[in-house]
């Protein structure tokens, strides 16, 4: 359901508002804030985020630590040295979604990320990303704020705190009991192996308890400004399949898990769009292309979507059929 604090969600963007309270450079989970627009320019093999002139201007890029992101830009391949055929009309679809999202205002209060030491900021990004999994944005924000207010948003503080205290502070995030234990373990690992900092590679992040590919890629982007892959949550997974953008290798079947979707997208999507795609599709997935009863009639790109109106009509048919099959209650 994963942020860079953006003032609006552009076709090349990522909506993440998980860290409203910590860095306001919130996470890529479905908790993104689709209200700031970036595009990538390359200089000396570095991808730099720049505001698109024809969209809303970005305020205080530097304060969110989003001025530069490492990684080579798209040059005719997918950035991995492989050329792959991209889906028809994908650029039109992204442009259309950006226009739809442009009118949606989800700007929230922001906090200056520079007031926190780099190590603490990065650890807070990791902790908040972990809390955000399968949890609504406002719940994650509340839990993060309580940890901060009680001085528990650093590796050292969490390592010293008992699990019961952590549970109370993060409740009611999803799986809060398991997450409290994982936060303790992660704090200990970060102190022991990384001097209180967090790992700076996908492989090392994946070795931490409770950290999967989505969180690992999100943390690399937000905490380290290093794009190693696409952050795929349930919205990106669902919408990519609805649009026919991804399939299982060698088949035309839909991908079954987000990790398959990530790999399929990375085979053809220009690397310059890897950061953007999450924010864009998360905002779209929460407002129009919803999990149940998608609002295809209000969607500006439905003409390009092979799934348009199918899920809406099929759910309606199932509902009507179920009503017809109901036995009348005896009086």
Describe the protein's architecture and organization.
By secondary structure, the chain is mostly helical. The protein has helices at 90-102, 118-132, 137-149, 155-160, 163-170, 176-194, 202-206, 213-224, 234-242, 258-266, 274-287, 310-325; strands spanning 5-6, 33-34, 38-43, 46-51, 68-70. The strands form 2 sheets. Strands 3-4-5 form a 3-stranded antiparallel sheet, with no helix packed on it. Strands 1-2 form a two-stranded parallel sheet. Helix 9 (234-242) crosses helix 11. The longest helix is centred in the middle third of the chain and has 19 residues, at 176-194. The N and C termini lie far apart (44 Å). Keywords: 4Fe-4S, DNA damage, DNA repair, Endonuclease, Glycosidase, Hydrolase, Iron, Iron-sulfur, Lyase, Metal-binding, Nuclease, Signal, Transit peptide.
- For this structure, what is the CATH class of the largest domain? Mainly Alpha
Percent of residues in helices comes to 40-55%
Which segments are poorly predicted (pLDDT under 50) over 5 or more consecutive residues? Answer: 1-83, 105-112, 314-324, 326-331
- Global geometry: elongated
Largest sheet: number of strands, sense, barrel closure: 3 strands, antiparallel
Q: Give me the Rg, rounded.
A: 20 Å
Biased composition (Low complexity): 313-322
GO cellular component, one term: nucleus
Catalytic activity: 2'-deoxyribonucleotide-(2'-deoxyribose 5'-phosphate)-2'-deoxyribonucleotide-DNA = a 3'-end 2'-deoxyribonucleotide-(2,3-dehydro-2,3-deoxyribose 5'-phosphate)-DNA + a 5'-end 5'-phospho-2'-deoxyribonucleoside-DNA + H(+)
EC number: 3.2.2.-, 4.2.99.18
């Amino acid at each position: 359901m994963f942020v860079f604090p953006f003032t609006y969600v552009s076709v090349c963007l990522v909506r993440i508002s998980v860290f409203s309270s910590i860095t306001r450079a919130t996470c890529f989970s479905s908790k993104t804030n689709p209200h700031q627009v970036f595009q990538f320019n390359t200089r000396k093999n570095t991808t730099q985020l720049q505001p698109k002139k024809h969209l809303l201007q970005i305020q205080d890029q530097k304060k969110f630590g989003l001025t530069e992101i490492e990684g080579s830009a798209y040059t005719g391949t997918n950035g991995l040295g492989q050329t792959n055929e991209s889906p028809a009309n994908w650029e039109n679809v992204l442009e259309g979604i950006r226009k739809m999202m442009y009118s949606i205002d989800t700007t929230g209060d922001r906090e200056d990320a520079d007031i926190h030491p780099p190590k603490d900021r990065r650890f807070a990004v990791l902790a908040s990303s972990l809390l955000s999994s399968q949890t609504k944005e406002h719940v994650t924000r509340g839990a993060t704020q309580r940890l901060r207010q009680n001085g528990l948003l650093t590796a050292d503080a969490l390592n010293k705190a008992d699990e019961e205290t952590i549970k109370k502070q993060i409740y009611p995030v999803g799986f809060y009991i398991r997450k409290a234990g994982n936060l303790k373990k992660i704090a200990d690992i970060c102190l022991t192996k990384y001097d209180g900092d967090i790992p700076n590679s996908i492989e090392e992040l994946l070795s931490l308890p409770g950290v999967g590919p989505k969180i690992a890629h999100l943390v690399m982007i937000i905490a380290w400004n290093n794009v190693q892959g696409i952050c795929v949550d349930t919205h990106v997974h669902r919408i990519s399949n609805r649009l026919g953008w991804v399939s299982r290798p060698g088949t035309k079947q839909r991908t079954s898990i987000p990790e398959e979707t990530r790999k399929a997208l990375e085979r053809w999507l220009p690397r310059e769009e890897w950061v953007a795609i999450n924010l864009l599709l998360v905002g779209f997935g929460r407002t129009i292309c919803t999990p149940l009863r998608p609002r295809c009639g209000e969607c500006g790109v439905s003409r390009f979507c092979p799934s348009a109106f199918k899920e809406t009509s099929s759910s309606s048919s199932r509902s009507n059929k179920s009503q017809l099959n109901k036995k009348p209650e005896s009086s």
